[in-house]
What does this fold into?
Amino acid sequence: MSKKQCVKLLALFALALGLLGFSVFLKHPRSSLSWSGEVYSIEDVNDFDAKLARPYNKALDDFADCVALLTNLIAILPCALVFLKSEDKKSAFKVAACDAFSFGLCWLYAGSVYRILKTFAGRIRPYMYFENPSAKGIAEGDFCRSWPSGHSAAVFIAFAFLLGCFVWRKADSKYKKPLLCAAFFLCVLTMILRMLSGNHFLTDVLSGAVIGFATSFGVFALLQTNVFVEKA
It folds into this structure.
């Protein structure tokens, strides 16, 4: 990797850290928000979202966390397989390190973007329109961070990275179709669980998916087209 490429990577990384810091700075005042105790009226929500709004369900909330984690593990699986199956561990390690750095950048940019949007939008979560809302969400001031869905963005960040790996790095891999299908299934499942658990409206999860995928895929594409990382 040339000195010029290293400088570009450092600049991208510094900008990503700046965005992350900005998202944390914006969120801090929100954490001190308090709820008056009055249940919000579902009539204030558009008909499209109101029909699918659900009360809070902790079991489904926790299940969605597990599915989102599994999706991200699947996204890095091809990189791990390349390293484990390669006879030249030193060269494979360099490629795996580049992939890990790329995945980290995708997460930093896309994760920061959806967090910033959440804070600015300040949309009330669906469970606030029903009895017995999430006590944790209220205590942490998270009850007004519904749009866009962070979990939906997170799984599509992983899916976009996985797709990018197969498009630019491992196009002929025999794992391409099964892993992409499995990851996409888990992405959709996560979106459904986030709605059923009362955390998000339909427009939240759809927006989160688009934002997560577009930002992550865009960052990965930028890395490849500018030859920032070594080819597998």
In short: Helices lie at 3-30, 47-50, 58-85, 89-121, 135-139, 150-169, 176-196, 202-225.
